[in-house]
Amino acid sequence: MTLPATPLARAELVAQGLPREALEELRRSLELTQGELAQALRTTARTLQRQGPRLTPELSDRLYRLYRLWERALLFHGDEARARRFLKAPNPALGGRRPLDLAGNEAGLEAVLDLLDNLEEGVYL
Fold it and tell me: For residue range 24-59, what is the model confidence (pLDDT) as tens digits?
């Protein structure tokens, strides 16, 4: 997914609605089924199918959070396969929850990003 370089431009794009193609692009990158993507976005597969050329601002916001998590996991792990494994595996530092399941809201995303920051600094919780 190609996003504008500045945070303000990204915020405006999310508010207008991300292009529908962003759903499929991230789904393929994460190697998720349509149902798994819907679950990660806290919606239904049917809702994803009904989206027009632009996603709703609410769905765009959730997709953007998931995208941020994917990008951060890639940065930390260095390759897609390892990043996918990290996102899909239950993690003891997250109470046994999968990082992917926490990306549906800002507080959950923050918990996973904090974990990645701690791991990067050599701190294991």
Answer: 999 999 999 999 999 999 999 999 999 999 999 999
Cα 105 to the center of its chain, rounded Å: 10
Residue 17 has which token pair? Answer: 């609605």
Q: CA separation (Å) from 9 to 6, 12, 23?
A: 5, 5, 19
For the cut 90, the answer to whether the pLDDT of residue 122 exceeds it is no
Assign residue 96 a region (left: φ > 0; alpha: ψ between -120 and 50; beta: otherwise). left
Is the pTM higher than 0.85? The answer reads yes
- Nearest Cα neighbor of 32 from 76, 75, 70, 78 is 70
DSSP 2: -
DSSP letter string, 62-108: HHHHHHHHHHHHHHHHSSHHHHHHHHHS-BGGGTTB-HHHHTTSHHH
